[in-house]
Amino acid sequence: MIGGGKDAFIGAVHRLALNMDGQIELKAGALSIDPQIAKESGEMLFLDPSRIYTDYKTMLEEEAAKPAEERLDFITIVTPNFVHFAPAMLALEKGFHVVVEKPMTFTLEEARQLQAKVEETGLTLLLTHTYTGYPMVKQARQLIKDGALGKVRKIWVEYPQGWLSKLTEREGNAQAAWRTDPKKSGKSGCMGDIGTHAANLAEYISGLKISQICADLHTLVEGRVLDDDGAVLLRFDNGAAGVLMASQVAAGEENALKIRIYGENGGLEWAQHEPNTLIVRWLDKPAEIWRAGTGYLSEAAAANCRTPAGHPEGYLEAFANLYRNFAQTLAARIDGVEPPAAALDFPGAADGVRGMLFIDKVVESSASDQKWTKFE
Amino acid sequence: MIGGGKDAFIGAVHRLALNMDGQIELKAGALSIDPQIAKESGEMLFLDPSRIYTDYKTMLEEEAAKPAEERLDFITIVTPNFVHFAPAMLALEKGFHVVVEKPMTFTLEEARQLQAKVEETGLTLLLTHTYTGYPMVKQARQLIKDGALGKVRKIWVEYPQGWLSKLTEREGNAQAAWRTDPKKSGKSGCMGDIGTHAANLAEYISGLKISQICADLHTLVEGRVLDDDGAVLLRFDNGAAGVLMASQVAAGEENALKIRIYGENGGLEWAQHEPNTLIVRWLDKPAEIWRAGTGYLSEAAAANCRTPAGHPEGYLEAFANLYRNFAQTLAARIDGVEPPAAALDFPGAADGVRGMLFIDKVVESSASDQKWTKFE
Amino acid sequence: MIGGGKDAFIGAVHRLALNMDGQIELKAGALSIDPQIAKESGEMLFLDPSRIYTDYKTMLEEEAAKPAEERLDFITIVTPNFVHFAPAMLALEKGFHVVVEKPMTFTLEEARQLQAKVEETGLTLLLTHTYTGYPMVKQARQLIKDGALGKVRKIWVEYPQGWLSKLTEREGNAQAAWRTDPKKSGKSGCMGDIGTHAANLAEYISGLKISQICADLHTLVEGRVLDDDGAVLLRFDNGAAGVLMASQVAAGEENALKIRIYGENGGLEWAQHEPNTLIVRWLDKPAEIWRAGTGYLSEAAAANCRTPAGHPEGYLEAFANLYRNFAQTLAARIDGVEPPAAALDFPGAADGVRGMLFIDKVVESSASDQKWTKFE
Amino acid sequence: MIGGGKDAFIGAVHRLALNMDGQIELKAGALSIDPQIAKESGEMLFLDPSRIYTDYKTMLEEEAAKPAEERLDFITIVTPNFVHFAPAMLALEKGFHVVVEKPMTFTLEEARQLQAKVEETGLTLLLTHTYTGYPMVKQARQLIKDGALGKVRKIWVEYPQGWLSKLTEREGNAQAAWRTDPKKSGKSGCMGDIGTHAANLAEYISGLKISQICADLHTLVEGRVLDDDGAVLLRFDNGAAGVLMASQVAAGEENALKIRIYGENGGLEWAQHEPNTLIVRWLDKPAEIWRAGTGYLSEAAAANCRTPAGHPEGYLEAFANLYRNFAQTLAARIDGVEPPAAALDFPGAADGVRGMLFIDKVVESSASDQKWTKFE
Questions:
Q1: Where does the Gfo/Idh/MocA-like oxidoreductase N-terminal domain lie (chains A, B, C, D) (predicted)?
Q2: C72 and C199, same structural domain?
Q3: pLDDT above 90 coverage of chain D, percent
Q4: D188 shares a domain with D53
Q5: Does residue C139 form part of some domain?
Q6: Which of B151, B167, B220 would best serve as a mutation to test chain A binding (most A beta carbons within 10 A)?
Q7: Quick check: C156 and D156 CB within 8 A?
Q8: CB atoms A245 and B243 under 8 Å
Q9: Backbone phi, psi, residue A212, to 5°
Q10: Which of C45, C272, C309 has the CB atom closest to B22's CB atom?
């Protein structure tokens, strides 16, 4: 693991997720650039002292030199955005599979290079678009794939958070500090951090691609540099229309990602706050409450549940699903067999490029007087 | 009453609403242009046969000629959009107060003329933007007025319906037929029918005015002429940003008007499907569930409740609130006294002009390549 | 109307309900035993001064003496419990149909006499068990009648209120005062006031009859005389088991009547706080959200809706449904024709007797050391 | 681990829970009495082959003989109820701390012996009453402890499941088979399996003790031996009244444990299906939605959250909280220091005895004609 020292947020989440199924063991870490924190963090995690590093280059170097049976299988990168690309490239060059937080890189150009490297090396990259790991998200995707709703006409995806309603970045909140700093976060704040999740979810569930956008980004808290709010009108490649709304200043909201998709025959609704439920509405009959862990789910959804219906699974389980599918895929590939279809269902480098493109394009569109901007 | 024969929808709703509080009695009607329907409808409503008309002009003529104590106090117009203006003008000219369905007229120009006539005559006009009649909508407005949320930054208002997901207008649905016909409905379908409600609600609760828009209207069902779906990016006069989404092809949705408004300190959420609840969220403490009929409501909200908390009031009561407030205002004015503040809280001609402006501008903006269109 | 002066609660509700559909007009009233209040209340309601009475006997006497076309069609009695029986008997004797608030009488014996008088006179009595007027309650009943759930095994009905959590009856609350006074309310407080509604609802929806009970009543607020809380274990005539819970000291609750019924194949859930929704659960497929105003409802439910889906109807509409069905029944009987099946669906004298029996038996059971008490 | 082979349910849940925080590692197992399953299960879990046992006695024997630094710290017992006592006693005798599934033993007498042994040895026992591991359950407990609701008057706890609505035990469902078999499950089915959870939760949150009960157990599915449904009237040691309802034949329900507690000033409601929310109601102000992961939680609740608000945590995290607290307690005790207060908050042997007493008493009360049975 690169990044994720004891003072970080998402690194701890990665560890909870990778621990859960007992298939993955954290063996080495360059957990912080602060040697003291790196050391203490590694000890807290019971790492072998010889595998606690203060520098990712040294770690990748030394670990790559170990014999196959001792070598790390993959590297997880949980640093701020501007430190994704270099370690990911190096890890791939050293022959490691890679897990990297989203957005995949700092610039679109880097993302394309990384994707090329993944293709060149034949290694596997997992991009942690966590929300696609929820079983009911997979069920929604399957229903649309199966044509249950007919042609998709309309997509509304929204992601309100309220935690940046004040100038939190100046009050000692480290998370807020780097995320609102263009040097560390990139050219967008809110859209880069959560808008990309929303766009990814919309494309993942619908199976469609965004083709044109009209964006309106805002910095609603005075004194902030990057956008903390925005809305994007969407057009999809099949002619469907959509709206994406994301905000980090929706005061009082937690992490309320929600999506609604409507087709000719019905619509569906999924909200991350109640992730085990998928509402499916029909034109001429009662709406239905599909639930995780039940017997009527599709294989794709069922494979991502751990407990029977009524035992709520949450964010960490969704996260663990990404890791579990990724690990199953690696294991199969290591064994030289084809991974099961369900295992291959995790976001990768192509999603990462698409996310970086989204950031580029919403920023471009928002700055433009012209209504529509082509999405590549 | 003009329009609202036994085959109509909204006329019956008006009657339920005006009956409820026992303050208003329907005495005469030109309920249909079909003489047979007009007659049968009038009889079903126990009208005096001499006051059942087949023609609104005759009705206004004859009723205006009656002695004061027999005269109608006001005229309700519940015809399709293209027959709002002429009867409303005539009624005002004959000295009657007027209740008219929204959108107020067929064109913006007519709306302005009607507003001028209202001002000229000093008569009172009620425009039935029903949703502003709900007590928790009034509570939301009051909370913002009182500054509880701080400066408003963000408004999201949405209005999904699904009833036009098919080409219902060709399947004998009279409601659908005129609403999708530009000759009867006007230059917009979805935005005229429900988008106006959403815009009105946003301005009513927030106390702000829309200043710029960027609209994207769609006709998602093939074979239809007018828009059946759309989204509008909004900017408000205080710098707040917003999104308005309306659709009549959100398959499986009923009438799911919902609004969320966020300020510096918190946010609120109200949904018409559960109208007796207002969710108020705060930055640093638990969200609150404000409920109709409770003892802690503002005077403005409490005056629009009829029963104690836990006895759900709905759409008809909200509608009746408009009539009750209007009737109290008329009664006070007839008595030559100032109506109570709560009674004056109903939508009027200025809202009607603003609604017609909204229709004009969203159509104009949607057709434009330019991103932003000034709202007046 | 007898009772229901301007200082009363339920009388006003009755008037809202009977006004709504424009089929019933209040023409006379003995609205209060206080002559001043009776007069002022009558004037507020635009009653003819000659038909404002201060004494129900005089009213019934004089109204009965009027010619048929002027006579009242029926009498509504909305006095406290101890003044139900005498006016109801007299009204029946004078040939009037009767509407009476629940519980029907003060004692079981009176209830039986009243039922006998109804049968003897052939007149019609409406007992306002309001909650059976909701369309989704009727849909629930129909689903069970149609066997959709299979044999009913389990019924849970609950009715939490919190308004008597303090000794409100000593703080000038007139409602609380008579309802907690055994001389005016009868031998039970909570169970008489709301427990009877819950029991009635359970029997109405399930089509079953309670056959044995085990009751545990409590007076949880010190200084109160009658029960303000209780629970009853139930056994039904088909072998089903049940629990009824009612409380007026469930602090913070409003009027949260809710019922769940489970059969061999599925279960259903209805809650008065969201009355337009009926949840239907199945063993092996997604739960369903049935909604008022939709096209898929049974005739019995649809006949009790006034507006399309998504226009919430509430407590007053449920109440108005009782009146509308009752009025349709009277109208048909006056015309000498058989009322339509849907119109006959309102609670009557038999329900009133059963309610009084419930009160008697829960009080008896609660006082007993023996577990089970036969329900008649 | 004893029990929990690859064909079992709760063993897998224990492993997910103990893995999550990276503090506990499964090192040895007697996972099945079927040697083949034991072997395969152990291999799947990457156990050292020498520590895969087919017999818990051998395992305890051999593991106890290992040097301290290799020895297991504790033993988890996840066998059916009738195989809890013997391995737990032996483990304690061998000096191991113990984790055991509820109900703690097969008989009340065994439970008392086990409790005595725990006291005698000074070892630590964790009984997995999972639902007490949820942060919002702990918040509820804290609110009551702090007196926020005033004196508790009323407790309603319910636990509907529907999975035994058919004779599932005869359809090859191993879970159903042993749970409905008195030889493996004990003298109660539904009350032993889920009623004990409900009773434990009520006492845990309220801080009260049940003092009297009146139980009514049912076997509603023909052909079944043990109860599959029941209700219990409760009286608590402070005079509060309550009702406990549990059913495994509430067709269509999943695992819908829910509790409501009312005091003089307000009430609270928690439901396992939406475990991150605690509704708190007040007499004279809006109800509040308290949420997991927020900054305003008590220390006891906050210590049991892993992620910020809006990242739903579920059943596995609640389960992991038991393990994490237990592990922290062990670690502190091993280090000879006092465990932190939050770590000591997990169910133990006393809860186990109380659960067995509950089973004994509800069965006794249900068979009795007398209304009330003393609880101990």
A1: 11-127
A2: no
A3: 97
A4: no
A5: no
A6: B220
A7: no
A8: yes
A9: -145, 150
A10: C45
3 state DSSP class of A196? helix
Is residue A266 included in any domain, yes or no?
yes
| In a domain? residue D278 | yes
Q: Do B245 and A243 touch (CB under 8 A)?
A: yes
For residue C265, the Cα-to-chain-centroid distance in whole angstroms is: 30
Q: How far is D7 from chain A (nearest CA, A)?
A: 14
Question: Which single residue is written with the structure tokens 């499986």?
Answer: B252
- Tell me which residue range forms the domain holding B95: 10-123
Residues B114 and B191 occupy one common structural domain: no
Structure tokens that stand for D331 in this block: 């670690």
pLDDT tens digits along A244-298: 999 999 999 999 999 999 999 999 999 999 999 999 999 999 999 999 999 999 9
Rounded Cα–Cα distance for residues B197 and D374 (Å): 62
> Among D293, D310, D316, whose Cβ lies nearest the Cβ of A256?
D310
Assess contact for B187 and B108: CB atoms under 8 A: no
Q: List CB contacts (< 8 A) between B149 and chain A.
A: 251
Question: Which CATH number fits the domain that encloses residue C224?
Answer: 3.30.360.10
Confidence of residue D309 (pLDDT cuts 50, 70, 90): very high
A290 to chain C: which residues are within 8 Å by CB? 286
Longest dimension (CA), chain D: 65
> Is the Cβ of C280 closer than 8 Å to some Cβ of chain A?
yes
Chunked mean pLDDT (size 10), chain A, 376 residues? 90 94 94 94 94 96 94 95 96 97 96 98 97 98 98 98 96 90 95 98 98 98 97 98 98 98 98 98 97 97 97 98 97 93 96 98 98 95
d(CA B231, CA B233): 7
pLDDT in tens, C123-168: 999 999 999 999 999 999 999 999 999 999 999 999 999 999 999 9
pLDDT band at D189 (very low <50, low <70, confident <90, very high): very high
Q: Are A208 and A240 in contact (CB under 8 A)?
A: yes
CA distance B243 to B356: 19
The partner residue sitting opposite A284, judged by closest CB among C287, C289, C296, is: C296
Q: D112 with D180, same domain?
A: no
Query: In terms of domains, do B81 and B179 share one?
Result: no
Chain pair B-D, CB pairs under 8 angstroms: 34
List the single residue in C with minimal CA-CA distance to A287.
C289
Structure tokens that stand for B223 in this block = 């074979």
Neighbours of B349 (CB within 10 A): 25
Are both C60 and C150 inside the same structural domain?
no
Count the domains in chain B.
2
Confirm if A131 and A110 have CB atoms less than 8 A apart: no
Q: Which of D93, D123, D153 is the last residue of a domain?
A: D123
C246 & C295 share domain: yes
Average per-residue pLDDT for chain D? 96
Mean pLDDT of chain A: 96
> Which of A12, A253, A310 has the CB atom closest to D254's CB atom?
A310
Q: Which of B278, B371, B372 to mutate to test the interface with A (most CBs of A within 10 A)?
A: B371
* Cβ contact, residue pair C307, B13, below 8 Å: yes
Whether B252 is in a domain gets the answer: yes
Chains interfacing with D (3 or more CB pairs < 8 Å): A, B, C
pLDDT digits (tens, 9 = 90+) for B270-321: 999 999 999 999 999 999 999 999 999 999 999 999 999 999 999 999 999 9
- Token pair of A119, please? 């293709």
- Give the pLDDT means over successive 10-residue stretches in chain C (376 positions): 90 94 94 94 94 96 94 95 96 97 96 98 97 98 98 98 95 90 95 98 98 98 97 98 98 98 98 98 97 97 97 98 97 93 96 98 98 95
**Is cis: bond before B103, omega within 30 of 0?**
yes
Tell me what pLDDT residue B142 has.
Answer: 98
The answer to whether residues A249 and A165 touch, using CB atoms and an 8 Å cutoff, is yes
Query: Which residue ranges of chain B lie beneath pLDDT 70?
Result: none
Cβ under 8 Å to C: D residues 86-125: none
Paired residues of C290 in beta bridges: C278
